[in-house]
Write a structure and sequence with these properties.
Keywords: Membrane, Transmembrane, Transmembrane helix. The protein has 141 residues and is mainly alpha-helical. α1 crosses α6 and α2 packs across α6. The radius of gyration is 18 Å and the shape is globular. The relative contact order is 0.17. 84% of the residues lie in helices and 0% in strands.
């Protein structure tokens, strides 16, 4: 419960991390869609890869600065951490998966697009929230 209260006190971090995850996924999608035909394409691949690595580093750095570093050796000996890890798997991975692939029957393409956008944002918030909650649980032990 302490970890959950701590997470709720860091709402701006939660929003920043969700935006970073969106940027990382968008960059990865662009990276995977690039052709590899010329040297310029290879340079683009390298630059996008460096951008993705930099964004991941920034996400970890922001979380560590706001919530404190995790001592993994100590955290993994506490049963509460393992319970939190299982809950994180369900809330952060399984639930967003089903939310994204659930397609409600709506009357227009515009409604479908708005529904998809809302579902993706909620899935991103669930993913980052569960990861940050696991981080809070690990630092609270």
């Amino acid at each position: 419960m302490i970890a959950f209260r701590r997470l709720l006190s860091q709402k701006l971090l939660w929003i920043e991390e969700t935006a970073l995850v969106g940027a990382i996924l968008g960059s990865a999608y662009g990276w995977l869609a690039l052709p590899v035909a010329t040297t310029l394409h290879l340079v683009e691949h390298a630059l996008l890869f460096l951008l993705i690595v930099g964004l991941v580093w920034l996400a970890f750095r922001l979380a560590n600065r706001a919530l404190g570093p995790v001592q993994w050796g100590k955290a993994m000996t506490v049963p509460a951490f393992w319970i939190a890890a299982v809950v994180t798997l369900v809330i952060g991975f399984v639930l967003p998966y089903y939310l994204i692939w659930w397609i409600p029957e709506l009357g227009s393409m515009t409604a479908q697009a708005v529904s998809a956008g809302i579902r993706f944002v909620i899935a991103g918030l669930l993913f980052t929230g569960s990861m940050l909650w696991l981080h809070c649980t690990a630092t609270a032990t």
